[in-house]
Structure formats: C-alpha cells, structure tokens
Write a structure and sequence with these properties.
Blueprint: H1 9-27, H2 36-74, H3 77-101, H4 105-130, H5 134-162
Helix pairs in contact: 2-5, 3-4, 3-5, 4-5
Length: 164
C-alpha cells in the first residue's frame, strides 16, 4: 500500500506561523503615527504588567494562608475544629451549586474532583478530631491547613470558570 507524501511537521508549523503573521498584519490596522516597534513595546509592557499582577495575587494569597495557618496554631483545639467544620460545610454547599450548573464534560470532571477533594478533607478532619496528643494534633493540623487551602483555591477557580 502506497501512502501519500506527508509534509514534515516543521513545514506545517512554518506555514501556520507565516499565516498567523500575515493574518495579524492584515487584521490589526497600523496607525500612521505609531510604528510597529512602539505597538510591540506597548503589548510587551501590558503583558508584563498582567503577569506581575497575577504573581502578586498569588503571593498575597500565599501570605494570607501562612498568616491564617500561623493563627490556627494559636487557636484552641475546639475552636479550630469548629471553624474547619464550618468551612467544609460552606465549600460543600458551593460544590453542590457548581454541580447543579452542569455544563461540559470536563467541568463535570472538575466538580467530581472537588467532591473527592472535599471527601478527603472531611476524612482528614475526622482523623484530626480523634487525635488525643496536642503535639501530634498540631503537627497534623499543618497538613490539614494545606488541604483546606487547596480545596478553597480549587472551589474558587471552578466558580470563576462557571461565572459565579
């Protein structure tokens, strides 16, 4: 059986890249007073600013989590377990709202992953509740805080994607 001649992937990539550049020059009108270099410079600055904003948001979230984790170590055991249970109940309600959204298959998969993450956090909370020694409780608490933080971040991301 004779196969047809297939172009090399690099040839396809070059053609696609060339088509992209031609399209971008045709679609984006060049203003007579602005040069291409100025437009590219402004685009690069805008991209750099957006990247720095995202980076700062991540650092702020990380600092907030660290501060909360530090505060959690000084709260009483009963209060910590109550707050953690309340947070898990809130996120379960948020996950249920996302579940009702329906949508595409990959979003349903994401919601299923959130449900599994919540189930894991609930099981970890039960384990934490059963610990009697204070030192062991505080050591496990650090890990549990990370679980809660990642669950919160995942729920927020899914809510953004769903437009809630």
């Amino acid at each position: 059986m004779v196969r047809g001649i297939q172009p090399y992937p690099s040839t396809i990539m070059k053609k696609n890249l060339l088509a992209f550049f031609v399209f971008s020059f045709c679609v984006l009108p060049l203003r007579s007073e602005d040069s291409l270099n100025d437009q590219l410079r402004r685009a690069a600055e805008k991209l750099r600013n957006e990247i720095s904003k995202v980076k700062e948001q991540g650092e702020v979230k990380g600092r907030e989590w660290f501060k909360k984790a530090k505060d959690h170590l000084s709260t009483s055991r009963e209060e910590y377990l109550k707050n953690a249970g309340d947070a898990l109940a809130r996120w379960k309600a948020d996950i249920d709202v996302l579940k009702d959204q329906g949508g595409r298959d990959y979003f349903k998969t994401r919601v299923s992953a959130l449900e599994q993450h919540h189930a894991f956090a609930t099981k970890e909370l039960e384990t934490l509740t059963g610990i009697t020694e204070e030192a062991q409780f505080r050591a496990r608490q650090k890990s549990f805080d990370k679980t809660l933080w990642t669950l919160e971040a995942a729920v927020e991301q899914a809510q953004e994607e769903a437009g809630l």
